[in-house]
Design goal:
Blueprint lengths: L1 H24 L4 E2 L21 E3 L19 E11 L7 H7 L5 E7 L18 H12 L3 E4 L4 E2 L11 E8 L5 E2 L6 E2 L15 E6 L6 E8 L6 H20 L7 E6 L5 H7 L5 E2 L18 E5 L14 E2 L2 H5 L16 H7 L6 E5 L9 H11 L1
Parallel strand pairs: 3-4, 11-12
Antiparallel strand pairs: 1-2, 2-5, 3-16, 4-7, 5-7, 6-7, 8-10, 9-10, 10-11, 12-14, 13-14, 15-16
Helix pairs in contact: 1-3, 2-3
Length: 382
């Protein structure tokens, strides 16, 4: 334990120095589309394309990117709830990042603090967090860039705080495989990110396109209301219904909307009851996705429309990466590995309380919904 504390102290001192240097150099999110007002009116629901922020913590240089050997190889997409990412000094961020190196996109839920310097939509500065920065730096070392939400969101009246009561949204991606698609719907699904009447945490839409421009899609990352009470179930039903309404309001030709993340769904009856009409879940069998071996639950899902998102690889289905088994070999601290025997509180402090979930999208020869062709025709006419 003492050795681990020393390692954490050295790591934190190093990261603090890195953050100060990055702040001095002005390395922050890079706005690709500046249509938002400074008061935060940049929601995807207001008809305007919001600010899309891409963070890059360092010059990636020749960072090794695991190659598939083909531009047409399926995209491997991971969703991972990392409990209170940015709040645990014990967490082995390098081990978690190494586990994710084989994926093209990684959507993370429960980021509770920003990693680097920046500014909220109201102009106030972030409070960068060294623990959060460690994970981002480890992902950058593996060749990932990321899209980070403009601010955090939560159930209370107060946001812009580095704590577990609010969360940020982030999606890591490999630039050789996909790029953010700023012309497609993206950003928060509602303008009111604090104490929103329809959401516990306002979901965030991430839009991507492959370099060959034959596949584009929107990932809607969610973390729904937890709990097994009747009010909790009703709240989750309301959240998914509101997401469905947001999707139906979109007017572009793009219809590849995929809802993924920690939905906190308790059982198959609830999954069937709340899945939006026309959508299916890749976890309709309700396989457990939490690490607690004493209380397995089918919390995490990938929901998509077979009509509009035929690129989802149904043969691959949804795979669950067993966090306990995969990380046993990375344990380098004194004391017993908290996964053997399983110690829930210790394991989630070092790693998380959810397993990563993974699905694939096949890259077609031609885009099936044609938003690019629509945009190109419009540009030609004008």
């Amino acid at each position: 334990m003492q050795r681990n504390m020393q390692r954490n102290m050295q790591r934190n001192l190093f990261l603090a120095a890195v953050i100060l240097l990055l702040s001095f150099l002005g390395v922050q999110g890079l706005p690709l589309t500046q249509t938002a007002d400074k008061d935060g009116g940049n929601s995807a629901s207001d008809g305007k394309v919001p600010v899309l922020t891409v963070g890059q913590s360092r010059d990636l240089g020749s960072a090794d990117t695991p190659g598939s050997g083909s531009d047409r190889a399926p995209l491997r997409i991971c969703s991972f709830n990392i409990q209170f990412l940015g709040n645990s000094t014990a967490r082995d961020d390098v081990a978690l990042a190494s586990l994710l190196k084989g994926y093209d996109i990684v959507a993370v839920q429960e980021l509770v603090s920003p990693p680097f310097a920046g500014f909220f939509p109201d102009g106030t500065p972030f409070r960068p967090d060294a623990e959060s920065a460690e994970f981002f730096t480890a992902m950058a070392d593996l060749g990932f860039l990321w899209v980070l939400s403009e601010e955090d969101t939560g159930t209370g009246d107060t946001i812009h705080r580095n704590g577990s009561s609010t969360e940020w949204w982030v999606c890591f991606y490999r630039p050789g495989r996909v790029q953010p698609a700023e012309d497609l719907p993206h950003g928060f699904l509602a303008e009111d990110r604090s104490n929103n009447p329809n959401f516990e945490r306002v979901p965030y839409a991430f839009a991507f396109r492959t370099p060959g421009r034959t596949l584009d899609f929107v990932l809607i990352s969610v973390h729904l209301q937890p709990g097994d009470g009747s009010n909790d179930r009703a709240r989750r039903a309301e959240e998914l219904a509101t997401i469905d309404q947001w999707i139906r309001r979109q007017t572009l030709a793009e219809r590849d909307f995929i809802i993924l993340g920690d939905m906190n769904l308790e059982d198959s009856a609830e999954v069937q009851a709340v899945t939006p009409a026309g959508f299916v879940s890749l976890n309709d069998e309700c396989r457990p996705t939490n690490t607690n071996v004493n209380g397995p639950k089918p919390y995490d899902h990938v929901m998509y429309s077979p009509t509009f998102s035929g690129e989802v690889d149904t043969v691959f289905d949804m795979q669950i990466v067993n966090l306990i088994e995969q990380l046993a070999g990375s344990w380098n601290s004194t004391g017993a590995f908290p996964g053997d025997p399983y110690d829930h509180n210790l394991f989630r402090a070092y790693y998380s309380d959810h397993h990563p979930i993974v699905f694939q999208m096949v890259i077609p020869g031609e885009d099936d919904d044609g938003p690019l062709r629509v945009a190109e025709r419009s540009a030609t006419v004008n």
